[in-house]
Amino acid sequence: MQRLYSTFPNGWPGTGLVALRVAIGAYMIRSGFETFQSVHFGLGAIQIAAVALGLSLLAGFWTPIAGLMAAFLQIPGLLHGRETAGNLLAAAIGIGLASLGPGAWSVDALRYGRKRISLRNNPESPNRGSS
Question: Is the whole model's pTM more than 0.85, yes or no?
């Protein structure tokens, strides 16, 4: 799983990634609920997927996969000419998040982030106390 994530930046870059995740997550949830109310039968799975991807992106869970899937969900809107600016922007943010990663403040960082291991003063070290 480590290959999907390049880095987990914190500070200002991490804050920027949180802002991107919130923007696309809120857009996906809103568009999923909005189109779910005015859609014909058979498209409900797409709206449920949009809401699930939005929640996943908000939490920063499987961000590279969710970002790419969110970008692919924008293709029908781009082809049919509905909200082309919003769809294009959401697709760009999804691709950006897929390539940059979720940032330090995400579920992905907690699960797959780089861990710091200190070997000094380890009480379980077999060579402790020997000179």
Answer: no
